[in-house]
Amino acid sequence: MAAKTGKILRDRGYVFVHHAESVLSLCGWFSHADNERFLSDYVERRIDTNLLKEVKSHADKHGIVGDAARVFCAPRG
Predict the structure, then answer these.
(1) CA within 13 Å, CB half, 67
(2) Which backbone phi and psi does 4 adopt, to 5 degrees?
(3) How far is CA 14 from the centre of its chain?
(4) Cα–Cα distance between 30 and 48 in angstroms, integer?
(5) How far is residue 64's CA from residue 4's CA, in Å, rounded to a whole number?
(6) List of the chain residues with pLDDT < 50
(7) What region, left, alpha or beta, does residue 71 occupy, with left being phi > 0 and alpha being psi -120 to 50 degrees?
(8) Count of CB atoms situated within 10 Å of the CB of 17
(9) pLDDT score for 69
(10) Residue 57 to residues 31, 40, 52, 54: CA-CA distances in angstroms?
């Protein structure tokens, strides 16, 4: 899921809220399983998790819900 979300962000310039939530959930699973190395190797090389946290926060604050909800964003440089 992290690779797919990262590819969508690079190619199209947006992230689906559902994908951001899924990747952040995956990060939670890895951190609770005490598997930080796999988290850094699998997820953090493919996508910026801080950006996904911003997407999720923006969606929550503005009531954006549903699988089809899109939050248009670009990584800050």
Answers:
(1) 0
(2) -65, -45
(3) 11
(4) 16
(5) 21
(6) none
(7) beta
(8) 21
(9) 66
(10) 20, 22, 9, 5
Q: For residue range 60-76, list pLDDT tens digits in order.
A: 888 877 655 666 665 55
- What's the token pair of residue 68? 């089809």
Q: Please report which residue ranges of 13-73 form alpha helices under DSSP H.
A: 17-32, 36-39, 49-62
Sign of CA dihedral 75, 24, 12, 41: positive
pLDDT at 73: 62
From the number of C-beta atoms within 10 Å of its C-beta (0-12, 13-18, 19+), residue 29 rates as exposed
Can you tell me the distance from the alpha carbon of 8 to that of 19, in angstroms, rounded to the nearest whole number?
A: 10
Can you read off the two tokens belonging to residue 18? 């559902």
| Residue 33: φ, ψ to 5° | -85, 5
Neighbours of 65 (CB within 10 A): 11
Q: What is the pLDDT of residue 66?
A: 66
| Residue 61 pLDDT | 86
